[in-house]
Structures are given as structure tokens and as C-alpha cells.
């Protein structure tokens, strides 16, 4: 009997970085589960990807435990197991204004989606991942390592993801590996559900300020995810990988 293709579950996979990761794994022949709460983005994915047999689209809120439990059960049943989890879902806007004006519900919503969502997905997928000696990849941010003003809630959730990652690696090893990726500036314009037909191009300055010479693409993150969930990374766990074109290593002074 032919071996089943491996199965990957990607949260927040209907647009942005998550959609780029989903496209990469569909091209590699994996069975892909996209979990997203944005129904319009889910519909756009169905059109863009053509609703192939190796794609399951699930509408769910990662911050709600019943949603997560139901979605993971559906995904594991459809895929006859799970090989990898990518915790990508998150409220992406880091600027919440001055901290003295930050409402508790704004803070809590970011914690619930960006951090609690990753915990819930790990909680409900781990039994399936253990059976396949699978892998977890948490998508954090360079803002877990350095900050701009008025980004306390976002930075706290992304820093929490790094700590959650190494804690999971210690708790779940050797059966399940856990790593994180901290992207910098990734241009996701073309991967949004409401992407403009003629997007405004980035400037030469935008690209040149990166030591690598360009702004990042979702494909850059997808390539690292593919490595981390592959047998080639079997000795890699509890680590954070910065994908930012070198920006967190660049000394910047005002001229």
C-alpha cells in the first residue's frame, strides 16, 4: 500500500506568511490543513489553490479552546494523523499606542490569539504529533528581540512564543521537536486576501537598508519551516531562527 503524504496544520494560513507556507507545502506534495478565523480569506484560498484533494480549509478561532479541539480532531481524522504544526496565527499590528492608553481588552486579545492560541494548538495536536515523531514551528518575530515604541502587547506575545518554544522542546522531546522562527520585514502584500491587483512596489531604499539587499518574502519563511520539519533537522530543537535579512545585526545611527 502506498505511503500517505505527510500532513501539516498551519494556523492563520489563509493569508500572509501562513499562506506562503501553505503554498510551499502543497507544491511539495504534503497534505495541508489551513486553519483561519477569516472566512473571506478562507474563500480566497479556495479560489487561489483550486480546492485540491490535499487541502483542508477549517474556519476556527485559535483563542477558543472548543474551536481548537474540534479543528484538530477534524484535521487529524482527515489526514489520518499529523506530522507538523505551524503556529502562525496572530494579530499582526504591533502598534497599540502609548501604554497608558492601552486598554486591557486590547492587551488580552493579543495574548489570547498570539500566545494562548499556540498553547492550545500544541495541547491538542501533541498526541497526534507524538505518533509520527512530528514537529512544531512557532512563528514569532524580531520584535521578540528588539522593539519599537508602543508595541508592548505584541512584543510580549512574541517573546512569550520564544519561551514557549524551548519549554515545549524540553517537555516533548525526543518524540516531538519544537522550534521558532522570528521573521523581520516580510512583504506579504501579494499574499493577503484583499491584495491589490497592482500593488505599490517597495522602494529601493526599503530593500537596500537590509544587509541582504532586499525585503523578505513569505517564501523565505516557508523554506525555513520546510527545513525544520524535515528529517534533516532531526538534531535541531528548542531553537529560534531569525529571518530578517541581517537587520537585527545592523548598527543604525542617525545621520
Automatic annotation (TrEMBL):
Transmembrane segments: none annotated. Gene3D superfamilies: NAD(P)-binding Rossmann-like Domain (3.40.50.720). Residues 196-216 are annotated as: Disordered. Keywords: Oxidoreductase. Pfam families: adh_short_C2. Residues 205-216 have a biased composition (Basic and acidic residues). PROSITE patterns: ADH_SHORT. Belongs to the short-chain dehydrogenases/reductases (SDR) family. This is NAD(P)-dependent dehydrogenase, short-chain alcohol dehydrogenase family.
